Amino acid sequence: MRTPLYDEHVRLGARIVDFSGWEMPVVYGGIIEEHRFTREHCSLFDTCHMGKFEIRGRAAQADLERILTQPLAALAPGRGAYGYILNEKGGVLDDQICFRRSADCFWLIVNAGTTPSNEEWVRSRLSPESVLVDLSLRYAKFDVQGPKARESMDRAFGAAMPDMKYFHLREVDLLGTSCMVSRTGYTGEFGYELFTPIDSCADFWRRLLAGGGARPAGLGARDTLRVEMGYPLYGHELGPGRTPAGIGGARFMNMDKDFTGRDAVRSELERGGFNVLAGLRLEGRASARNGDRVVMDGVPVGEVTSGLFAPSLGVAVAMAYVAPSAAAPGARLGIDVRGRLLPAKVVGLPFHKSGTCRRKENET
Amino acid sequence: MNIPEDLRYTKSHEWARDAGAYVEVGISDFAQHQLSDVTYVDLPEIGRHVNAGEEVAVVESIKAASDIYAPVSGVVAEVNPALSEKPEAVNSDPYGEGWMLRITPDAGGGEFNKLLSAGEYAGICEAGH
Lengths: 364, 129
Prior knowledge:
heterodimer, A: 364 residues, Gyrase A, domain 2, Alpha-Beta Plaits, Elongation Factor Tu (Ef-tu), domain 3, 3 domains, 6-stranded mixed β-sheet, globular, B: 129 residues, 3 helices
């Protein structure tokens, strides 16, 4: 499958790879260069492949409260919250952001690879009076990320972006077209996720590059940026084989409501002893990878789920699920990389501490 | 794509330069482009004997770790010390600053002359392998 921005990527010289059945740009020039430009300026990431659904109806909130883990009752219109979709055993089917558009209307943004299964899972759990609409037929989506994102938007579209708080979503008129903009992203930097009509998305994209001073960035930089922030990725830190208990206990879950998987998560939290997600900072550039074994004093204590060279830190970092006894910050662990033990130290997440994603607008 | 005429190549995208006493080895421009940003090169011990086609080094990029195979049999005589600080030289100058190791070939090997010519290697790259 190709996104509506595919021709733009080819024109920009991107290297295209398969990602969950989508032909996506992995890199345009260099991954580290794109990473740095995002941390310091502003980059564009094609995220059209992600799933986006509107769920509406008088029972929409009650339905979604059962399907999603985060609390929705207190969510005001225009606000969003991060959470999971769990199966009955508490296994993670996906992570997602849910925005409330109005009293009876919600937007649900999910991962690309899980979009079809999520749609089926959610649809089959809705009340008859709730309606699910696939917004991918209406909207393209790309992310505008970096400390200069607001200036890029202002310059590209010749109008001042409104002040927006983190995890807010609103309608913004750009180029005489109604677009939806959320103050979210996956890089750790200030920025937006921009939903434009599909027909004109290339125009928005090009204006941000030409007049806005933004540059394109691919999936390679998207991964280095998210790992530096300690953000989990479905298929690595998240999956059906494990509950979210290991990522901050009950965080992103409202344990007081009745959502699918809650009882399983609750008993796991009560039982304890489960492996927890830890940040590991290595000493050099050599990287650990998904599946590498983590040891403490010669004893296996866990497994790496993501690992790479972190451009902003200048050393390799990894995320790993480790036994609670090995998870304390400062703990000295080793990672078995191709038969050699690389020393690593447990550090608090995020690895990159100076991300601008929570910057207040009046601080720009 | 840059494929110097005076070098020999392997199907696995190493290049080899005959410098008389030793054979210098690195990865091709095509390979560095495929890997994208090289972040670390795991080089062998000096003095290790390797057979042609044997794994002799590992090059790590942001995305993955890839094995580097010895183009000829011999003893590892030298590794590029600059790569520990500047692995990105493999991207910026794959046939120069980005060289990885030097192998003193076994006597009577003749393996170097069986490696691919620039023209033959270009054919492999064009086929997309």
